Amino acid sequence: MTSSTAGTSFTITWNSLGTANCTLQRQKPDGTIENAWASGPFGSKIATPAMVGTHRWWIDCFDETGQAVAHSDIYHMVHYLGGRPAGGSLKGRISSGPARDYAKAPIDRPTNDPNLSGGGDPRALAKLTYD
User: I need a surface site. Which of 81, 86, 111, 121 has the fewest CB within 10 A?
Assistant: First the structure.
């Protein structure tokens, strides 16, 4: 898992293979979910999490019929430096884990999820990248 201090900006990039569209969502450490944080079969968006704790972003991708065919998650820990948010460059404030943290997998949600009827397509992939 990657980590950074509160207020650090970084880019989340996504792309997919064998999908028509994707929706990227975010869950804050307090459980608040930002539905449709971003969308499209590929793209990027700057994230600047300020809340301390573990943040989760996930992408669900769909085929032309609207069936979910791919899913990917990424987790990122946000912490305070010296008890308060720190300034400075991103390079000096990112720690732990590789410079690029990514997940790539076919859909792995429970088969009883009503949004994912029919299971995944093994040819469809979704990938989230942290830079």
Answer: 111
